Structures are given as C-alpha cells and as structure tokens.
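anyone seen this seq b4? input:
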Amino acid sequence: MKKPLYVLIIVTSVVVLDQLTKYLVSTYISPFDSIEIFPFLHLVHIHNTGAAFGMFKHLGGGFFILLSIVAIIIVLSLLKKSTYSRFGLSLVLGGAIGNLIDRIRFGKVVDFIDFSVGDFHWPAFNVADSSLTIGMSVIFFLVLIKKES
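predicted toks r here
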C-alpha cells in the first residue's frame, strides 16, 4: 500500500470514529449523566473548553483552535519528511483533526470515556485524545529504541 494512502486511511478512520462516537454520546447521553460499563469504566457526556483534562480554560477557544492548526501543520511537515513513525504521526494527526472539528463547530470538545482504578480517577477523554496519546507514545517509544541502538 502506498504510504500517503496508508496515512489517509488511518487519519480518516480516527476522525470518523471520533466524530461518530461524539455524535452518539451527544445524542443519547445527557450532559453529566454516567453509564457504567464496568466498575472502572463509565460513559459520560462532558464538555471540555480547555486543553487536556480541562486545563487552561482561561486561554479561550481561539487559542486552542490556533494551537491545533499549528500542531497539524507540524505533523504534516513531519509526515512529508518521514522523520518519525508514519503510524504514530497519523494517529496524532487524526486526533488533532477530530478535536479541532469540535472546537470549530461547538467551541468545546465532547469527552465521554471515564476511567478509574481504585481511588485514582482519570479525567474524561475521547477517541481523539486516545489517538493522540497512543500516537505520541508510539513515536516516543520508537525514538527511545532508536537512541538505545
């Protein structure tokens, strides 16, 4: 499979899955309701106007839209240069686009995955956030392995 097609398939898959799940959550779960899937996993409907975990809300939506656009340009540049893992960068790009769509359309991001272990409670997140995290982890891991070889 050609590399640009590979990237396009991953990015498109992440964006479609992200937007579809956010639509379903927004349609079927009232804000702040919680549906238990497992004792450690709930589906919720939260609106996040800040960055990761709701931080920096005071900076405003325009700042996060601009930041997302800059991040997308950087990732596209890295993909063109083939500097890092295409898979990892594709996941990061899909996640950034998914959350950017929400910020442009609604001024906030829909988060719905609520995870906890014992007393530790992780802030709610979404498919785009997961994609960003997994993509960055892949890149970090591969860079770390490369430096050790």
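Helices lie at 3-28, 61-81, 86-106, 127-148. The first helix runs from residue 3 to 28. kinda curious what u guys think
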